[in-house]
Structure formats: structure tokens, C-alpha cells
Design brief:
4-stranded antiparallel beta sheet, disordered N terminus, globular, alpha+beta
């Protein structure tokens, strides 16, 4: 992103006569600027603002000194456009000189004559115009000249910079030259792939702490594909989505800045090769995990709070948010295929039931004495309401979770407990079983099951993670995970007694 800038020559006429001298400046520094380091847990990124500040300062220092010799020196802050024009012209000039030098070297080499050739040196008055950060590298003899690499090949093997402050100016992800994340199998996960899933356990110690998000992390989710289950997805209010190695190294493997607003929800597709994300910028995006390219981008015309894939047709997904309408999109045609209208203000969460023929939506519609229409059951095909008399207490339900085996689902409530319902009509609530002990207090605290369905986990506004026995609703263990509200607890689908948690401060931790 950094580049070289040419400035007007304010030297004496004697210095201007050096323009005829041959000048060769390497383009390697320009080419190397296309490469960036991979993202790690410290989340190092390049800032456009800091670069512009340093550039303006170096230009100001040069012209400040030149103004003492020539009153007609150019002030960079008064004409910024001319500054960038000079930058572009000078880079073109350097590239032309480089090509000329390479052509001369090639002709000498082809003739079989051993001639020691050195490139033209940059004139002294040009070298003095740049700070140390912009000094051209020294050219070695013709035997050390690097071979020319085509631009397309360089782009195919280079990393792409991701700056959360400028998501529209950069690509939505980057490729690693060293490895492809979808072809690797974690050494920690591999021994468990051939084994039968055992009884779920409760994590108690920190394995890895992941830092890098600059805002609250709304959700974390392990990849559902067993051999890729070391990959951990996180979505944050800092407008970014990240994929981590959450089992071994804790490195950030990919960063996706495909949204200009806070990312409220994110999930893996069943194949593990794509991500579905919903954001406050009104869009829902399907992104390729490996390349970071947007496959589909859809405008919902409302802030998206939740985005859920259809269980049997992943090409179709539902979006709900700050609207009385839930939209069903087909990613193949990029069109709305169905709309589900209800007299509510916003949809908090959506849950497909077992076969995908019906789904449950949670809304913020609460009356004084009851929560009529807080949970609504819909027929997916006909868009008709099946029932809106499911939950009659005066609490909203910020999240829903389906039991992986039994015909039931759980609703997280702002009454500081989780309620369990039948997933078959008429969706009766089990009033004798409540999971209490954690706090919600208005936060979007998620809940979820272990793979065998025996353990129900929930975050808490107190920063702790709570693990319940699903069948008797007893609290098994309380894990003091964070100092800020813990928003999500995701239990690993393969590794026993392993879970990931995230909090309001942007921290992610993996426990075992």
C-alpha cells in the first residue's frame, strides 16, 4: 500500500541538467508492498491513516527545507491531488527504466558475452528527496538479477491486506501461501475422527486465549465438518468475521471484512466451505472460506439480527431483524422466495425444526401481562402461522436452540432461565423443567447443546459459562470465563470436554 512519490524539482538550474542521466530504480519495493504477513492473534494490520500521516510529514520536511532556497516550493497540504499525480507518474517512470535495464541485460546475456553490467544509479538530488522508508534498494550485478514474475502470478501467490477501517477498499479475505485451511487436519482432532462419539464432558481449564476483535463478539461456532472442526468462526460488532485455529496454535487464519456494519450473526454451511453472515448494514452475505470472495450479497432493507440456513436445502436461508417481515432467500437466484409477516417490531432469532418444514421465530413483542407472539411457529412452504400461543410469560427470548436428538427445543429468556418446549405441535412448554442459575439482563446470550444432547450450555451477563444436565435441569458446573458478559458458549462437535466462549469485550477463549 505504500508507494513512492515524485516531487517537483526546486533545485537550481545546475541540478536540473542531471535529468538526462540514466536513472534506474527497482520496482521490487513496489511489488513487495503487495505482500503482507498473515493474521495472528495480535491482529497486526496496516493503517491508511498512519501511512498518509508519515507521507505528508516527509513531504512537508522536504519542501520546508526547499522553501528556504526557492519560494515557489509546493505545499503538499494545499494541493493533495497533484501529490498523488506525481506519485503515479514517478512509479510509471521507474517501471519504464526498470524494463529498459532488463532488456539491456537480457541482450547481453543472449549474446554470450560476459559483461559486468551495473544499473544506472539514482541521481543524488532524487535520493535526498525521500526519507529512509522510501530509499530504493541497491542493484546487484546482472548475475543476481531476479527473474520477472508476471503480475497475475504474483497476485495468485500474494496475501491480501485486510484493514477493518477500510473494508470497501480491500478484498474480503486473503489466501495463505503456506497452506490451505480447508485441506489441513488438526493433529489434535485426527485421533478422535475414527472413534465413536463418547459422552460429553465439561471443560474446566483455559486452553487458548484469542485476542484481535475490537468490539463485542456476538457468536462463536465450530466448523460442523469433523475433519475441519479445529476451525472456529467468530462474528463481531467491529464489522469483521474471523476464522481461527481454535485447537492448536490459536492463529487467526482468515479475516473477512465483507460488511460495513456490525456483524450480528454468522454460521457455517454444512459443507464447511462457505459462511453466511448477517449485518447491521442491511445485508446478508455468503462468503467462500478459502478465497474470501463474496459468492452472494443480498440487501434485506433492514438490519439483520439473525440468518439461518434451511437444514435440507442450504441454498435457501431466512433473514430476520429490525422488521416485521422474515425473508426467505434463494442464493442461486438472489431473490426473495417467501415472506413471513407478523405484527412485531423485530425478530430476535430463528430456529428451523427437524425436517425444515416449520420454523420458530422469536420476537420482541411483549404485552404487560403476557408475551403473546413472542414465539411464533411458521409453516415454511405456505408462509402461514401455525401457532403464536407458545410462550405466555412476559419475557423475550433472545436465542433458541434445537436438541440434536430429541423432539424438543430450548429458548433463552430474559427471565434469567431457559425454557424447554416440544418441537411438535402444539409446541407445549415443559413448566416443570427450567434451567436457572445464569443471568441474561438484556444481553443476547446464546445457548447450545453438546453433540449427544446431554449437556446444555449458556453464557451469562456475569461473564460466566454455565453447564446444565439437560434431562434433570441440574447445574453441573459454573466456569468463570470472562470479566465481561459472556455471550456465547459453543461446545466442540468432536473433542470431548472442549468449548469456546466469547464476551462483550471482544475476547475469545477455548476451554478443555
Amino acid at each position: 500500500m505504500s508507494s513512492l512519490v515524485a516531487y517537483e524539482d526546486s533545485e537550481s538550474d545546475g541540478e536540473q541538467t542531471d535529468e538526462g542521466a540514466s536513472t534506474c530504480v527497482q520496482t521490487e519495493s513496489c511489488e513487495q508492498n503487495q505482500e503482507v504477513g498473515r493474521c495472528d492473534s495480535s491482529e497486526i494490520s496496516l493503517s491508511h491513516h498512519s501511512f498518509a500521516h508519515d507521507l505528508d510529514r516527509s513531504v512537508w520536511e522536504y519542501h520546508g527545507g526547499a522553501s528556504e532556497r526557492n519560494s515557489s516550493s509546493l505545499l503538499p497540504h494545499s494541493e493533495p491531488q497533484r501529490l498523488f499525480d506525481r506519485e503515479r507518474k514517478y512509479c510509471s517512470y521507474r517501471m519504464a527504466q526498470e524494463k529498459q535495464f532488463r532488456g539491456a541485460t537480457a541482450s547481453l546475456s543472449s549474446g554470450g558475452t560476459q559483461v559486468k553490467t551495473s544499473p544506472p544509479q539514482t541521481p543524488l538530488h532524487m535520493q535526498q528527496r525521500f526519507s529512509d522508508d522510501f530509499k530504493p534498494a541497491k542493484r546487484h550485478s546482472s548475475s543476481d538479477v531476479r527473474p520477472y514474475i508476471p503480475k497475475r502470478q504474483r497476485q495468485a501467490t500474494s496475501l491480501e491486506t485486510v484493514d477493518p477501517n477500510f473494508p470497501t477498499d480491500q478484498t474480503m479475505g486473503y489466501q495463505s501461501r503456506d497452506s490451505q485451511i480447508l485441506t489441513e487436519v488438526s493433529a489434535r482432532v485426527k485421533p478422535y475422527l475414527a472413534l465413536k462419539p463418547g459422552t460429553a464432558g465439561i471443560p474446566k481449564k483455559v486452553l487458548i486465549s484469542l485476542g484481535g476483535h475490537q468490539g463485542p463478539v456476538n457468536t462463536v461456532q465450530w466448523c460442523p465438518v469433523p475433519h475441519l472442526s479445529h476451525l472456529l468462526l467468530s462474528a463481531s460488532m467491529d464489522k469483521s468475521v474471523k476464522v481461527w485455529d481454535g485447537v492448536e496454535t490459536g492463529r487467526c487464519l482468515r479475516v473477512y471484512t465483507c460488511h460495513s456494519g456490525a456483524v450480528r450473526d454468522a454460521c457455517w454451511t454444512p459443507c464447511g466451505r462457505q459462511l453466511l453472515t448477517g449485518s447491521f448494514d442491511n445485508s446478508a452475505v455468503i462468503t467462500d472460506v478459502e478465497t474470501g470472495q463474496q459468492v452472494v450479497r443480498l440487501d434485506n432493507q433492514f438490519k439483520v439480527m439473525c440468518a439461518v440456513l434451511h437444514p435440507s436445502s442450504p441454498e435457501v436461508f431466512l433473514c430476520g431483524g429490525y422488521s416485521s417481515v422474515v425473508k426467505a432467500w434463494d442464493s442461486r437466484s438472489s431473490k426473495v422466495v417467501k415472506m413471513y409477516k407478523a405484527g412485531i417490531q423485530q425478530t430476535l432469532d430463528i430456529l428451523f425444526l427437524r425436517d425444515g418444514g416449520e420454523f420458530i421465530s422469536s420476537s420482541d413483542c411483549v404485552s404487560r401481562d403476557s408475551a403473546d407472539r413472542t414465539l411464533i411457529a411458521w409453516d415454511f412452504q405456505t408462509s402461514a402461522k401455525v401457532s403464536n400461543q407458545i410462550y405466555h410469560e412476559r419475557y423475550t427470548c433472545p436465542s433458541l436452540a434445537l436438541h440434536p436428538i430429541e423432539e424438543s427445543f430450548v429458548a433463552q429468556t430474559n427471565g434469567d432461565y431457559m425454557a424447554v418446549f416440544s418441537s411438535q405441535r402444539p409446541y407445549r412448554m415443559n413448566k416443570r423443567r427450567k434451567y436457572e442459575g445464569h443471568k441474561v439482563e438484556g444481553y443476547a446470550v446464546h445457548c447450545g447443546f453438546s453433540l449427544d444432547g446431554t449437556i446444555l450450555a449458556s453464557g451469562s451477563s456475569t461473564g460466566s459459562a454455565h453447564f446444565y444436565d439437560y434431562h434433570n435441569a441440574h447445574l453441573l458446573h459454573t466456569l468463570q470465563a470472562h470479566s465481561q458478559p459472556c455471550l456465547c458458549v459453543s461446545q466442540h462437535p468432536v473433542l470431548p470436554a472442549t468449548a469456546a466462549t466469547c464476551d462483550w469485550s471482544g475476547e475469545i477463549r477455548v476451554w478443555h
